[in-house]
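User: I'm curious whether this sequence folds into something compact or stays loose and floppy. Could you predict its structure so I can see for myself?
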Amino acid sequence: MRTNDPTLDDLDRKILALYQDDTRVPAQTIGEAVGLSAAAVQRRLKRMRETGIIEAEVAQLSPRALGYGVTCIVSVELERDGGPDLARLKKRLMKSHHVQQCYFVTGETDFVLIVLAKDMEDYEAFTKDHLRDDPNIRSFTTYITLERLKVGMRTPVDT
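Assistant: Here's the prediction. I'll summarize afterward.
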């Protein structure tokens, strides 16, 4: 969906700006803030879900509270960046519960991953299963995060 989609009017954008911060806010509260009825807000949210503007509504959990104390940023360089080898790697990374984010990128590296692990042994097992034994992976570099400063999926909404 394009960010300047003509089906989004100013009221939709105002609703999205409020809604993405906390999806538990009642439609009545959003409606009061933007000048619409709760039913009108609900109809607009339903339409934005159906058209894919709202992709998902999820809870953001604390990895550390759930036993995942290590966050790694991993850059992966491939031997060949096309064909069945690439498709297999993408599929494998998408299935891994350790991989929180996966970006196929331009530049000196081919992928950038955000990986959660319980500890370094768990991360080592991830690299063996997903990276080290893949003959199409030329190299990978791991950056261990020291502090989680900002995490989120908030998208700027021009209102």
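Summary: The chain has a mean pLDDT of 92. Residues 1-60 form a domain with the Arc Repressor Mutant, subunit A fold (CATH 1.10.10.10).
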